Amino acid sequence: MDKWVNFPASVDSGDTHELGPDELGRRKFITQVLGSSLMLMALPTLASTLFKKGMSETERNLIKKEYLEKYCPPGYDPFAHRWAYGIDAYKCIGCNQCMTACKIENGLPGHPSINNRWIERYTKLAGDSHVHVDTCTDPANISVSDPDNFIYRFDDRYAEADVEYSFFVPKMCNHCEKPVCTQVCPKGATFQTPDGAVLVDEDRCIGCLYCKQACPYGARYLRPIPARADGVTRVAGKCTWCWHRITKGQEPACVGICPKKALIFGDLNDPNSDISLWIKEHGRELLVLKPDMGTRPSVKYIGINEEVR
Amino acid sequence: MKGKNKTPHYAVRLVVLILFAGITFFVGLRFFVPEGSKLTGSYDAESLLYIASAPVEYAGSKSCGASSCHDSLFKKWAKGAHGARDEQSKCEACHGPQGNHPGKIKKLPKVRGDGNVVELCLTCHREMKARSTTGQPQISPQEHPFPHKEVLICTQCHDPHSPGFDKPATAPVGATKNSTNNVEAPNGMSAGESLASSCFSCHGPKGRGGFAPVLAGQPLGALKDKLVKFRSGELKGAVMNPVASKMKDKEIEALAQYFSGL
Prior knowledge:
Chain A is of the alpha+beta class. Helices cover 28% and strands 17% of the residues of chain A. Among the domains of chain A are: 84-109 and 117-172 and 241-302, 2-Layer Sandwich (Alpha-Beta Plaits); 181-237, Alpha-Beta Plaits, CATH 3.30.70.20.
């Protein structure tokens, strides 16, 4: 209590200096200097924004040309394409050939949980309130598979059961038009190319997996790589739509191998491409996964129901 | 009283400051972000060339036929049920990726993976509740090879390049190339291993159990004893008798050694 008594509650008015009518004072001075300097900075910015013209066509072309020459694979113009992918779950037979082809094409290890793409089996048993889902990572499915040889199978567990409905759903990166993963990446390692593919820069990625947390579709995983100079041994892996193939004019490996034509890939800019015709044919049936996330997926589905997440 | 209803001047200042900062931020964003990045996105574009440089493994069926190396097989496939329809079972689905095939890799496997023909066919053709019922035939392996119970692998009756039931049942596995007189196996496999691949179609990959009993890890003596008894007919088995009847002592020894060692 004593220390408060000894401490002066207010400054003695005799020590302060009363401002005269023509004096500026410290507080006023700082306010005015700061304010005017901010105005000076902001006004030209505002003016230039208001009166700035958009990029002219020639400028745009120059930038495009430089980008194409410097960074794009020869003969490929990412501005000319807008890729999209269709999955027909009515046709899918769960043979997992797409997964095998994908893994070999992209040099992934055989482990069943390191996947760019996978197939889920949705099964509703009669009288059951929920749907059973199993994938290639299910122990019973692994036991009939041979991951060392890139062979993955579904077991026939529902052979005796009373099945109400059951179907296969191939899942993969949805290559969203508004990807979430690119926004959260702290290294700028994942990005969207002008043709719509979402890719990962392997040299920048540090494997923090923010993108995996952000992705609503669970399309990302940690992929082992040979140890880098900075000690990183695992980076985020994802489906690239086989970017090394589509830039050469080929279709992705999964689409090429599918024995049921359940996978469709093509260019939305071309009205006669497989995907454009397919979308036209199935216009009203088309579904995307988790439309409420606002990601606008480029992978469209038919033949799935509301249980598919 | 009057002064209480008036908005305090520090609150006004705060609002003005926030508004000002916000406007400056968004105006600055438009001003400082280069126009080019709106076109291409902002990232290290050099990685594009790296990503695009990955090797292509799956070359597609056409390259097998167009190269005229496998012309006759390709034509047969293109006319048969696996190739003539809109939904094709491609070359690389069974033989594995072409990859460096005509160059570094001289020969693609007859069957990709572990060499189990039956399971490879069943990858697509096994009867399953979730599979669509249209298109490819659905086969229950327990019931299918009717009435020839001694038929062991699908390719004995069906030509995989042009499937359908147009090929008469050939001799059972014991007489196929896997158990020729030559016990010496090619390319580094042990004799037992190369022989054993024909057992996998029933006894499962590596003998780990299919619709026939598990062989892997069984005692050496028991395996030999069983095979000898099947050969002599002392033990009865619709499948095993014709298989074992063509085996030599050397082959029985090699097989038993292989399975007991797993």
